[in-house]
Write a structure and sequence with these properties.
Number of helices: 10
Helix content: over 70%
Shape: globular
Largest sheet: none
Number of strands: 0
Order of helices and strands: HHHHHHHHHH
Length: 224
């Protein structure tokens, strides 16, 4: 039984608007502060990307995910702008670490829009960064281009990885037995889980490092 191929073909047979819409919703939720700690946006994107087998599907999924990520981050930004420093004392920030919040804010004050761009590729940090950017006073005119650029690169990279995995699964299954497929699938699952766990541990360790003292005169932070 071609198990892996059957699963991929089942995903590909789903209505494309429904599949893309669900993926966009997961990414949107992940990018919104609070929901980002429970919505598997990155995992959902990788799974949906295994169904990408044409340039058109790639472009549609890429565009929707980029827009949804940008919207989710923008909501987080304006939440930070609205509540300001008081957001640090909320239950969600207290639960996931004030140290991480302080570090994100410190990096933003020193690096500005560049920190927003690179935070997109860091688990946990990317959920806190938009609200921290709004709180820190980074102008939205600088925040938005960095968010869009980061989301576009992040989504393109994950869609390419997912599409490659989907194609690889089909090729592997064509040359091994069903039992071998289970073994390979299990090994790939263990590898994927190990990578995700290590990335999250590194991100959490990085968040525990105290932020560098901030120079309030940094020209990057002119009033919005």
């Amino acid at each position: 039984m071609a198990l892996l191929t059957d699963v991929l073909e089942w995903l590909q047979a789903l209505p494309q608007p429904a599949l893309v819409g669900a993926t966009g919703a997961l990414v949107f939720a992940e990018c919104t502060i609070g929901l980002g700690f429970i919505a598997p946006g990155e995992g959902g994107l990788l799974i949906a990307a295994t169904t990408v087998d044409t340039a058109q599907r790639f472009l549609v999924l890429w565009a929707v995910v980029t827009v949804c990520a940008g919207l989710g981050d923008s909501i987080g930004f304006f939440i930070g702008r609205r509540f300001g420093p008081a957001l640090r004392e909320t239950k969600i920030i207290q639960k996931y670490g004030t140290e991480g919040w302080d570090k994100a804010t410190g990096i933003l004050r020193r690096r500005g829009a560049w920190a927003v761009f690179f935070a997109r590729f860091l688990p946990v940090v990317r959920t806190l960064t938009p609200a921290a950017a709004g709180t820190s006073g980074l102008p939205y005119r600088k925040f938005l281009p960095a968010v869009v650029a980061g989301a576009a690169c992040w989504s393109a990279m994950h869609i390419a990885i997912g599409a490659a995995l989907g194609e690889a699964a089909k090729r592997i299954e064509g040359i091994i037995t069903t039992g071998g497929a289970f073994v390979v699938g299990g090994l790939l699952l263990v590898l994927a889980v190990t990578i995700v766990v290590r990335k999250r541990r590194k991100a959490r360790r990085a968040l525990l490092v105290p932020p560098t003292p901030i120079d309030d005169a940094d020209p990057e932070f002119e009033p919005a």
